[in-house]
Amino acid sequence: MAVKKSPKKVAAKNRTGNAAKRKNPAIQKKYTKTEILNAIAQATSISKKEVSAVLDELSNLIERHIKKRAVGEFTLPGLLKVKSVARPARPARKNVPNPFKPGELMDIPRKPATTRVKVLPLKKLKEFAL
């Protein structure tokens, strides 16, 4: 007597098999902006113009989060965090040993306070590289 497989088990096997097939292949060359827009437009069936508008608005949104007198931090959930970091001023120093010419002294000019942009990868982005 032949044993029939239940349809649930067969469907479950097909789903796991498709998941392995759906893994996206690695891209071998760096995309230009146009290539990125084309790839997203094809994958989402949204027009290239609309994808461009979304990316422009995302750029605008990040700018509004990290500019002066703003919150100073923007998170793209799961992927990355963009922060503005204030670096304090550094005073001038005189007669500091020169690391490149032992025995010589040098003067280091002062540096004003600056604001830097720091981009931190989040868990999902780190997992992509593994």
Task: Summarize the structure in short.
With 130 residues, this protein is of the alpha+beta class.
Describe the structure.
The protein is α+β, with helices and mostly antiparallel strands and 130 residues long. It has two domains: 32-71; 72-130, no CATH class. The protein contains four helices and five strands; from the N terminus they run H-H-H-E-E-E-E-E-H. The protein has helices spanning 7-21, 33-44, 48-66, 123-128, and strands spanning 73-76, 80-87, 93-97, 105-108, 114-121. Strands 1-2-5 form a three-stranded antiparallel beta sheet. It has a two-stranded antiparallel ribbon with strand order 3-4. A hairpin with a 7-residue loop joins strand 3 and strand 4. It is elongated. The two termini are 48 Å apart. The relative contact order is 0.10.
Note the topology.
Elements lengths: L6 H15 L11 H12 L3 H19 L6 E4 L3 E8 L5 E5 L7 E4 L5 E8 L1 H6 L2
Antiparallel strand pairs: 1-2, 2-5, 3-4
Helix pairs in contact: 2-3
Q: Structural class, from secondary structure content? A: alpha+beta
Strand content: 15-25%
Task: Compute the separation of the termini in Å.
Answer: 48 Å
Helices and strands, in order, run as: HHHEEEEEH
Number of strands: 5
> Strands of the largest sheet, in order across it?
1-2-5
Considering the chains and any ligands shown, give keywords for the structure:
alpha+beta, 22% strand, three-stranded antiparallel sheet, elongated
